[in-house]
């Protein structure tokens, strides 16, 4: 999971009060591959970001019954997305009498004349708490949180917890232990721990690790230092020949563990000295954590070289894993930029860093929003023999960063082992798999041929970890193919199958198909035949849905509505694409008719 949106509230408030800060992340430009009317977008794009935010805020209060905002609420803009046809979508977080509201996020939709066109909201109720007086002191709340999450508590601050239909006065506390942080929410009146959610997403869930251990399975991906697999950078021009002044861009070679020889844009710091840092991609860089649990990127040791060759294709060089990491991160950034014009993970033009050799025998990899970087452990040497630096893992994890910067989908429940549950969390995992496999298609590396499988290079007995065409073929996490009322209580990786399957059906259709050497056979709940609209269009629909029409509480029925809206924007309500979105969801048993009334 991504970081709970709680901590982000502070950031958003700061952005909203500084008009210049907003402009930095705002008008992202057309964020899907499809432009319908660039000319109209240009004329209507002249309204300033501040004017758009003001119009959206006024619209939210004018349409209070639809938006759910009420007296005492303040709206703080987090993001403004502009469509090619000129429509705007302003994402807000909320405070209530200056207290951050958890689960109070909403997106206000405006047409190209800045008139109200609808709202997507996380909470369907007014967030007025019964009391504004806390019984617990901040110190008492912090010590409760520290006990619950077994670590050291930072300061506690008062919030309104509006998740799950309530509106409770609560304390929000960050607890850290061994480099991992949790956000704990403690009821300010009863002292009950309302939630305890890890701030970073581990690629391998505690449940999966236990299953693998029970089965005596190991993760031991094959390495190789083959050559001729790299392709030239398509997106950026390193311009290395004007290298008289330093630092200068250089063309380096990575000898990676899993994707052969790859070309990397590096930095020449002086004559004969290079650093594993890519100035053409916002200064994205990989460092060596040297076995520490630091969440501070600046504490990582720089990778430097005299030859601009990085690694030797084997784990005997500490730099090989760094080559994989730097390659995976830059390919992911390029995928988002080239496909959606997204500039960096948070669309703010900032670097996405990576640290390899993180921690002592850590058998995992994760996106850490605190350091804005990917952290890769080396494996425990027993069950996990190598660093988890394969491409689709990186694409998956960085997509959690993208979700964190947009819809911030949250698990509804986390158990004491750290396993996460609930449909919004499952949707988050699914989007990470969908875009993660699209990163593979984008990278088109012969050493890691693109497919709709996740973790196919991990060396697992079932040959993959998860797959989008027929999720239930996975027996390790028990991923499901179809929605049912119980899905709301399913572990997030297992539950991810519902929307991953819908995405696959939308892209490629039902039945047998061979794509790039892999045979797929996608079933449907209602035995209907679905004809796919192609991966490019399906991906554009899901991206637009994520960035415009999803909020922290979006469940699978909400995702159906979001993707229908996105398809309508892009292709029209009478289009084959729109109808196929509807059919794909019906084929995984998500329909307008079976939406649970409690969550409508
Ligand atoms: Zn994940």
From TrEMBL:
InterPro entries referenced in this protein's UniProt entry, alphabetically: FTP_domain (IPR011096), PepSY (IPR025711), Peptidase_M4 (IPR023612), Peptidase_M4/M1_CTD_sf (IPR027268), Peptidase_M4_C_domain (IPR001570), Peptidase_M4_domain (IPR013856), Zinc_Metalloprotease_M4 (IPR050728)
Cofactor(s) annotated in UniProt: Zn(2+)
Peptidase M4 domain mapped to chain residues: 252-403
GO MF terms held by the record: metal ion binding; metalloendopeptidase activity
Start and end residues of each Peptidase M4 C-terminal domain: 422-590
Presence of keyword Ribonucleoprotein: no
Pfam families: FTP, PepSY, Peptidase_M4, Peptidase_M4_C
The UniProt record lists the keyword ATP-binding: no
Summary of the function given for this chain in its UniProt record: Extracellular zinc metalloprotease.
Name under which the protein is recorded: Neutral metalloproteinase
Native organism: Streptomyces pluripotens
Upper lineage: Bacteria, Bacillati, Actinomycetota, Actinomycetes, Kitasatosporales
